[in-house]
Write a structure and sequence with these properties.
The structure holds 2 protein chains of 2 kinds.
Chain A (H helix, E strand, L loop, with lengths): L1 H29 L3 H27 L3 H30 L29
Helix pairs in contact in A: 1-2, 2-3
Chain B lengths: L1 H18 L4 H21 L12 H27 L8 E6 L5 H13 L3 E7 L2 E6 L8 H14 L5
Antiparallel strand pairs in B: 1-3, 2-3
The chains are: A mainly alpha, B mainly alpha.
Chain lengths: 122, 160
């Protein structure tokens, strides 16, 4: 009984993680510029990787491998915001201006994807 | 000195978890490696409240679960945003006030902001955080104040 509950829980976590990975990847395609895409990338390495690792830990049960899986998660959650921050900082100091709605030229009604490429310093 | 012992203990625990071989040779290597690592840290002068923040451990047990819950909530919010048929992003750079007194506290706050999707810290000048938000109208300040307050509590009564 306990075994089945743990298996069911791990399946739910793995599917949830897969959902967030897929949604994050979709966001990488749909969102207009590097700054908004960072938020989607953040989803994949917080909840996406997080739920999959916890799901594997639950599936595996309480032993050494589980401790190692949770260690991976801890290191990932410590380092990924730093990487994200570095990307944002690099983009900003490279002169890329964040996409905004109010920037108002013709394509404000679109998703702005075609504007993202033109973000060089003016 | 106390901090050196802590660091050695944490490093050796990590060694044990990753190796899990209890032969004399490998344990000796582990002990020696951790001693060398701590010695290098002492020599570089990096062994302080910032690099070995053991004084935060107890309060972190309260903060981390709350942070995980926040991460989950904001993940769901950004997922809904991405999956909506019409993309309703309204990104903007906003500014948050950080009430932490130490660099470590600010570092934790900045990383917590970045870990919750929807907000990414892009710059820090003193107690002013520059944050990129994917939907600026969702930033009403209350949640950020909450996180700010909790990180300041986590930081404790530290000397600046």
């Amino acid at each position: 009984m306990m075994e089945q509950a743990a298996t069911a829980l791990s399946w739910a976590l793995l599917l949830g993680g897969a959902f967030f990975l897929l949604t994050g990847s979709l966001g990488m395609v749909r969102l207009p510029d590097v700054f908004t895409r960072m938020h989607a990338a953040g989803m994949t390495d917080t909840m996406g990787a997080g739920m999959i690792l916890v799901g594997l830990a639950v599936y595996n049960g309480a032993d050494l491998v589980t401790v190692r899986l949770l260690l991976i998660l801890a290191f990932l959650w410590f380092t990924s915001p730093i990487a994200t921050h570095a990307v944002a900082k690099a983009a900003l100091s490279g002169g890329l201006r964040p996409y905004t709605l109010g920037a108002g030229d013709g394509d404000a009604a679109g998703d702005g994807a075609d504007r993202a490429e033109g973000g060089l310093p003016s | 000195m106390n901090r050196a012992v802590w660091l050695w203990g944490i490093l050796f625990a990590l060694w044990l978890v990753l190796s899990w071989h209890f032969t004399t040779l490998l344990l000796t290597f582990g002990v020696a490696t951790c001693v060398i690592a701590v010695w290098v840290a002492v020599r570089m002068g990096t062994l302080d409240r910032e690099s070995v923040p053991v004084h935060l451990i107890l309060r972190a047990f309260a903060y981390v679960p709350w942070l995980v819950w926040e991460i989950f909530r904001s993940n769901v919010r950004v997922a809904r945003l991405i999956l909506a048929p019409r993309l309703r992003v309204d990104p903007s750079i906003v500014h948050f006030f950080a009430s932490q007194r130490t660099d470590l506290g600010r570092f934790i706050y900045a990383n917590s902001i970045t870990l919750t999707p929807g907000t990414v810290t892009t710059g820090i000048v003193g107690d002013d955080f520059e944050v990129h938000a994917i939907v600026q109208s969702e930033i009403d300040g209350s949640e950020e104040n909450d996180m700010n307050r909790r990180v300041t509590w986590l930081e404790g009564e530290a000397a600046p």
